[in-house]
């Protein structure tokens, strides 16, 4: 029986876009967990790496904004790359983004559980129903984190506007805590500010530079989540405004925090504390109960980032379902809430399965490091493809003057190629850095195998969509029109020719 699926509900403004983009980027979580890893990789040159990583991110944000004006669609890169570069790279762009987010959800759920346990221990709660609470236990942290994931999924299902408003409130608290504690460290820290912190040539090797830059790019990952809401915004320009505001806010916070950390903590301290760097900073600067406030901010950030990752992933799968590159289950819009409810629940279910599988890696820190490093390569791939798609689509502007050619073609192309070069060099380093395979974040072959598996699975799924589903996307290379083209499944134009 033919039917026209319900529409997504247009109710969001710029503030909602900023909230979803900033929550998905999760500055507090990135600073708390990633700063120690980044410093362990590049030493005290973390501030300049974050600044350098921002440059291609800014170019890619320009590409996203221009593409969104031209073709607003909740599928974003999946649709844009498919139109400009072809359906195979387009599908791969959508697929690797979705799989990357699901892996992120799996380990962020464990991080969230670990932070909640730390907070419970501070409140002198050391066990629940006879189970000892250990923040370093991957199993316990994962189970608690998955309970949180389930709760925030329920909120995402019942209305994205209420979810973004909650995230906005959490963000205000987080950023206030970051500014206060990092500002305090910046003023009272005993380690002198050094210009060498902003000298990329002081990094010991090209491999460390490449790995550090991919990690720094990963810090910024998530600002593009605002574009997944383009069909739910009142103005088509709101996603770009939200994305840019979030991106520049992240740059300021990341550099401010990295300098503040290095003012207060020595290099060995930063490396030793790793994912505990922010709670350690709080304990070093203040007495209880104030020392626990950064931990509370980290908990809020982790919860918000989990929810803001579920929301855009369900929309990406909705766009793919509309084109029949994925199943029709992803296209179902809840008649009351105006959200892809079933898709949102399914994303959570898949992330839960991945999180439980990840328990095979015994230490939580190992799981985090493996996921961060691997996802960094995947992020570089899909951002790079989207930027190149922008340059290809608007190549006619090369005759429209220097400024237009630079903004539409030059900067996006340079940004995409820069990410490809960084990712390629890091992949080469992984392959040549070891001579055997081992399930460890220190093993290069293992680190390279995960993104390769994601890409291979994407190609397999694309082949299935083309040859078994007979998706029209692989005939036209275009996604379903977001402005209202909702072809029934049995309509002649809705089938592959």
Automatic annotation (TrEMBL):
Q: Entry's Pfam families?
A: AA_permease_2
Location within or outside the cell? Cell membrane
The way it spans or sits in the membrane comes to:
Multi-pass membrane protein
Q: Enumerate the UniProt keywords alphabetically.
A: Cell membrane, Membrane, Transmembrane, Transmembrane helix
Q: What is its main location?
A: membrane
- Residue ranges crossing the lipid bilayer per the database entry: 20-41, 48-67, 87-108, 139-158, 170-188, 208-230, 242-261, 295-318, 339-361, 367-394, 406-431, 443-464
Under the GO molecular function aspect, what terms does this record hold?
transmembrane transporter activity
Entry's Gene Ontology cellular component terms: plasma membrane
Q: What is this protein called?
A: APC family amino acid transporter
The species this protein belongs to is Streptomyces himastatinicus ATCC 53653
> Lineage of the native species?
Bacteria, Bacillati, Actinomycetota, Actinomycetes, Kitasatosporales
